[in-house]
């Protein structure tokens, strides 16, 4: 595909996520969440394209007594290699901007963790996209956070001492459906 024939596509996607925190001294289970956002794909060559996105994602983790909610506006830039005309392997960096961060102790009200949460999250994504039609697609992706979610602090959460000096990082398994316009 020459530069004159390069094609740009725009669209939207929604998805189901399983999120958790991972890292040293982190013991969290998967938590169901969601995502929704806008996508673009620039076909730079017959088998290669660049696909930036802007996605709102509910993320977090769950331990025995606490459920963490950390919502982000994520901006992944996926490099796509088409192994077949309708199927690509996707890899690329992601930067996330925290917009909401709370913890909910079991059977109690949520506590705001905004001041304890790092504002920016960097990660790497690996996945695949299958184009069902020219306009509809499905995606599967794992995004691994590379930066700590929380600043090194501790706070009393309704009688439970919460220490955020661990190495908790975001982990996100995504299954998405999207449409190109």
From TrEMBL:
<dbReference type="Pfam" id="PF13568">
    <property type="entry name" value="OMP_b-brl_2"/>
</dbReference>
<dbReference type="InterPro" id="IPR011250">
    <property type="entry name" value="OMP/PagP_B-barrel"/>
</dbReference>
<feature type="domain" description="Outer membrane protein beta-barrel">
    <location>
        <begin position="7"/>
        <end position="149"/>
    </location>
</feature>
<protein>
    <submittedName>
        <fullName>PorT family protein</fullName>
    </submittedName>
</protein>
<dbReference type="InterPro" id="IPR025665">
    <property type="entry name" value="Beta-barrel_OMP_2"/>
</dbReference>
